[in-house]
Design brief:
The complex is a heterodimer of chains A (548) and B (206).
Chain A lengths: L29 H20 E9 L11 E4 L2 E11 L6 E8 L11 E5 L2 E3 L2 E3 L3 H4 L2 E5 L9 E3 L13 E8 L10 E4 L2 E11 L6 E8 H4 L6 E5 L3 E6 L2 E6 L2 H6 L1 E6 L13 E5 L2 H5 L7 E6 L12 E4 L2 E9 L2 E3 L4 E3 L1 E6 L22 H13 L2 E7 L7 E7 L15 E3 L6 H17 L2 H55 L4 H29 L3 H4 L7
Parallel strand pairs in A: 1-9, 2-8, 10-18, 11-17, 14-18, 19-27, 20-26
Antiparallel strand pairs in A: 1-4, 2-3, 3-4, 5-8, 6-7, 10-13, 11-12, 12-13, 14-17, 15-16, 19-24, 20-21, 21-24, 22-23, 25-26
Chain B lengths: L11 E3 L6 E3 L5 E3 L6 E3 L5 H21 L3 E5 L3 E4 L1 H10 L3 H30 L6 H15 L4 H12 L6 E5 L1 H19 L4 H8 L1
Helix pairs in contact in B: 1-3, 1-6, 2-3, 3-4, 3-6, 4-6
Classes of the chains: A alpha+beta (548), B alpha+beta (206).
């Protein structure tokens, strides 16, 4: 047996007894506990930092990416998109987002979400920053207190966010014109607000437009404020030259609305959501409103071509009303068609004037009977409505009220509603009528007989002409050569005459002498006659001095 | 073949500090008569320590894989990557070998370490006698491989240091990286605290 290499085992020193240690706690076991605690802490913190999960509906998920797209409020991240899927009915895209814990209170009923991406609209470019960073979902926190977890996202960014100071007003217009959402609202050419929304009224007869006026300017919206469409160019040519009226260039391009208050009117601002009328242009808007409107029907005989709704009703150059409507009606009793023209007359435009100050007689007298009496008396004095052509160039017509002297007496048909105002034919109509009557007279002429006789006359004339022709020919053939010979002879005769009668012609001097003789003879005769007159007896006795 | 003679069986202890061989005495521990250091027959509380470290590592393995390890912010993008998403994006980009490498180093190896160490611990606790040699070799493999699982952490720390271009691009370390680092360190510590000799003790005692 081999000796172990470490033979002197017993020489080895013995281990010393270790002093007993107290509580052999395996400290290391604290580690998993610590890890658990830290993990729990982190988990709880994460859970706490995690806000609610919300759903937002959009029409498309353009630009949105799961786990990348943020939800931002005032450019601060308040959530992340965690899931995007198509709704069950495949009409929408549902974006699920995990909000941050502190964003919980933003999620109320009227909170709005929309996707911010680069947009070019009208004159403005927005969301350029998202070109690189990618789209994000922006939030406009509502004011409601009712919490919500699912929202319908907006497809276009809202014009006005809830924290923008200002007021919203409602405008009613017949048509939208060139105004669209985002169009600017101008106050004295300053951009003072924007069009927020528009909608067709349920009846489809008018349009409701919502405008938002920013804070410093909303105080100029008073009860007498007028809104009008400020899009386009308004050009007028007057005695002072050409006048061009526009809002800013961008409003010409993208449309706009302007407002202004009537001069000398109340200046207290109106509350939000007050309704106004949107006028089509500034002139109409700023026109003093006519509160008293009388409607009349007028039946004109002539064609209504050229007369349009809105055409003025003119009283010797002053517009006192306008055409309201044109229509056709079938008169069953008479079996004829009639063309009623309804006009609005604004009696307030006619100032009442009377010798009796305490009894103002005029159309501004609000009482119905008084104005009826007045109109009756005016009609009795010959006032009639007639159609006149305002411009020969365009053929536009207007209704003119004027006094006619030679018209059959008529009266206002107050029984009808609206009352029927008597009309007269005038202007072109009158001319037309005259022409018509002339044509009628012409029509009555016995054209057939006239033609027959004319034909006979013509035949005779033809014969006459032929005879004349023959005559002429004869003249030509026989008389003309003779005439020519005669003329030659006459010429020779004339020549002779000239020779005879010439100054130096012998005949001339002979004649002179003869005449001289003749004149002397005449003198002698004259002296004889004188003598004889004085001495008539001389014929018997001879000259006194003579010896008998 | 009879079991080889061990120091403990021969009644001899070796001081862990000055390597002096001393005669054993009753009890588990004693002091070295030469240097005064404590002589442990086996690493003290080896099982418990290893188990505790392993448990901690296993717990941390969950957040290490779930939380993002890297938060990369560029001008265009804000990207948070977990280990797995990094692997997937690598794979999608077509760098299969790299994806595989990261996958093995960062996901498979730590998991393997946890499983293997747990199994070894269990086998010791159950005084299992079979395959001691294999188990011993496995343990040494785990111990060797351990240091290489820091590949990911290393890559991230490099990136974080390099990519700091303020507004253009920023890379931040995520909580996941912290947890992952802790997993690697804890598994290494667990391997270190595990006394390999315990694997053989069951055979001796029998």
């Amino acid at each position: 047996m081999a000796e172990p290499p470490f033979a002197p085992l017993d020489d080895l020193p013995q281990a010393v007894v270790e002093p007993p240690r107290r509580g052999r706690l395996p400290f290391i076991w604290l580690l998993p506990v610590l890890v658990l605690m830290v993990a729990a802490f982190v988990a709880i913190q994460q859970k706490l930092a995690q806000g609610p999960l919300i759903d937002i509906e959009f029409l498309s998920a353009d630009g949105l990416e799961t786990n990348k797209t943020k939800i931002r409020y005032k450019d601060v991240d308040i959530g992340d998109v965690t899931d995007i899927h198509v709704s069950k009915d495949r009409k929408k895209v549902i974006v699920t987002a995990r909000m941050h814990a502190d964003a919980g209170e933003y999620l109320v009923e009227d909170t709005r979400f929309w996707v911010v991406k680069p947009r070019v609209a009208g004159g403005s470019v927005s969301g350029l920053g998202t070109l690189f960073s990618g789209a994000y979902i922006s939030v406009d926190v509502g004011r409601s207190t009712v919490r919500r977890r699912s929202f319908a996202g907006l497809e276009v960014p809202p014009i006005v966010t809830s924290d923008l100071p200002g007021r919203e007003y409602i405008l009613r217009a017949e048509e939208i014109g060139s105004v669209s959402v985002g169009s600017t609202v101008y106050y004295r050419h300053i951009a003072a607000g924007q069009v927020v929304a528009y909608a067709l009224d349920p009846g489809g007869a008018s349009v409701t437009i919502k405008v938002f006026v920013d804070e410093p300017y909303d105080r100029y919206v008073t009860p007498s404020t007028r809104f009008w469409q400020a899009s386009g160019i308004d050009m007028s040519i007057g005695s002072d030259g050409v006048k061009l009226e526009t809002e800013s260039l961008s409003s010409i391009l993208e449309g706009g609305i302007a407002f202004q208050s009537l001069p000398q009117s109340a200046t207290n601002p109106v509350p939000a959501d007050t309704a106004f009328t949107l006028f089509t242009d500034r002139e109409r808007a700023m026109r003093q409103s006519d509160t008293d409107v009388r409607t009349f029907t007028m039946y004109f005989k002539g064609s209504l071509r050229g007369l349009s709704v809105g055409a003025p009703v003119d009283l010797r150059g002053i517009t006192i009303g306008e055409v309201k409507s044109l229509s056709v009606e079938y008169d069953r009793d008479g079996g004829t068609l009639r063309f009623p023209v309804e006009v609005d007359i604004f009696p307030q435009r006619i100032r009442g004037r009377s010798a009796h100050a305490d009894h103002p007689l005029g159309m501004d007298d609000a009482s119905e009977t008084a104005s009826r009496t007045l109109i009756d008396s005016l009609v009795a004095h010959g006032m009639r409505a007639e159609l006149k052509t305002g411009s020969l160039l365009t053929g536009q017509k207007y209704v003119a009220l004027d006094f006619h002297t030679e018209v059959p007496p008529e009266h206002v048909g107050w029984d009808a509603h609206p009352a029927v105002f008597p009309t007269a034919t005038g202007g072109l109509d009158e001319i037309q009528d005259s022409v018509g009557s002339i044509v009628k007279k012409l029509d009555r002429l016995p054209f057939d007989q006239m033609t027959a006789r004319l034909m006979a006359t013509l035949a005779t004339l033809d014969d006459t002409m032929k005879t004349a022709d023959r005559l002429v020919k004869r003249i030509d053939g026989t008389i003309a050569p003779q005439l020519s010979a005669t003329l030659t002879e006459a010429q020779a005769a004339m020549k002779n005459a000239k020779e005879v009668l010439g100054q130096d012609a012998p005949l001339q001097s002979d004649l002179d002498r003869t005449l001289l003789e003749l004149s002397r003879a005449a003198k002698s005769v004259s002296a004889l006659v004188d003598y004889l007159e004085r001495h008539p007896e001389s014929t018997l006795r001879g000259k006194p001095g003579d010896p008998p | 073949m009879s079991a080889p003679l061990t120091g403990r069986a021969a009644g001899l202890w070796v001081c862990g500090h000055c390597r002096a061989t001393v005669r054993a005495r009753a009890g588990r521990d004693g002091l070295c008569p030469r240097c005064g250091g404590t002589i442990h027959v086996r690493k003290p509380h080896s099982m418990a320590t290893t188990a505790a470290l392993l448990l901690s590592a296993a717990l941390l393995y969950i957040p290490a894989n779930l939380l993002p390890v890297m938060d990369m912010r560029t001008l265009f993008d804000d990207e948070q990557d977990t280990i797995m998403s990094g692997v997937l994006s690598l794979a999608q980009e077509g760098s299969w070998p790299l994806a595989l490498l990261v996958f093995i180093a960062s996901i498979v190896v730590p998991l393997l370490k946890l499983v293997v160490m747990g199994w070894l611990l269990l086998s010791v606790a159950r005084r299992s006698r079979g395959n001691v040699l294999h188990r011993s070799k496995l343990f040494r493999l785990v111990e060797f491989i351990g240091r290489w699982s820091m590949l990911d952490v290393y890559a991230i720390s490099l990136l974080v240091a390099l990519v700091q271009m303020r507004s253009l691009a920023m890379i931040h370390v995520g909580l996941g990286a912290l947890a992952f680092g802790a997993v690697v360190v804890l598994t290494m510590l667990a391997a270190q605290s595990f006394d390999e000799r315990l694997l053989w003790d069951a055979n001796l005692d029998g």
